[in-house]
Amino acid sequence: MPTWLNLEMLAVALSLAYLLLAMRENSLCWYCAFFGTAIYIWIFGGVKLYMESLLNVYYLVMAVYGWYQWRRGGREHHGLSIRSWSFDCHLYAFLGVLLVSLISGYLLERNTDAQLPYLDSFTTWGSVLTTYMVARKVLENWLYWILIDGVSIYIYLDRELYFTAGLFAIYVVLVVIGFVTWRKLYLAQHRVYVTADLV
User: Fold this and answer.
1) S-S: 135 plus which of 33, 35, 66, 183, CB 3.0-4.6 Å?
2) Cβ density class 42-63: b for 16+ within 10 Å, e for less
3) pLDDT of 198 strictly over 80
4) Structure confidence by residue, pLDDT tens digits, 8-51
5) What's the sign of the alpha-carbon dihedral 159, 163, 166, 171?
């Protein structure tokens, strides 16, 4: 157990570094994401949160994808700018997450010894979508994280992952700051584009 505790603390530190760097649009965040999630794959498998463990495999892939998009994405390969999705896009995304969460929650409940299968599924599929939104610099990703992180706190407390629960409590505060920060950047970028069009 002490080894798990040390690994959990390291994963927490890397996860915090990821979020703080992401708030600043710093592509180094993806390095922290890669190594932090590699640790969490093993931790979550050990406490029978199988969807969370599988989610972190996805995070490994998205860390590489996100780094590439932030550094080389966009039309001219100079990195992406912050964008916003329409209401319809958000509605379909949220309904899609609910549907696949119900399906995977049911399958986990019937076929495995998974703990909290529906909540685990919801946070997993919600995180799959929201991580993609981060990689594509969709402004509203921060609002999704508020809900996902709030539910995750309950899950981690139930599984006695207290440092991780504490991390996600900090996340809830930081994602609000992240949204405010990105919104200012988005509005500033939008004003630049509008001004350029008028010239």
Assistant:
1) 66
2) ebbeebebbbbbbbbeebbebb
3) no
4) 889 889 988 998 999 988 999 999 999 999 998 888 888 777 77
5) negative
Cβ 42 vs Cβ 6: under 8 Å? no
Element (H, E) at 139: none
Q: What is the pLDDT of residues 144-195, one digit of tens each?
A: 999 999 999 999 899 888 888 988 899 899 999 999 999 999 998 877 554 4
Structure token pair of residue 64: 């590489």
Interacting residues of 162 by C-beta distance below 8 A, sequence separation 6+ = 156
Question: Which residues, listed in sequence order, are joined to residue 138 by a DSSP beta bridge?
Answer: 83
Cβ partners under 8 Å of residue 30, min gap 6: 18, 63, 64, 66, 67, 70
H or E stretch at 158: helix 141-158
Backbone φ, ψ for residue 124 (5° rounding): -70, -55
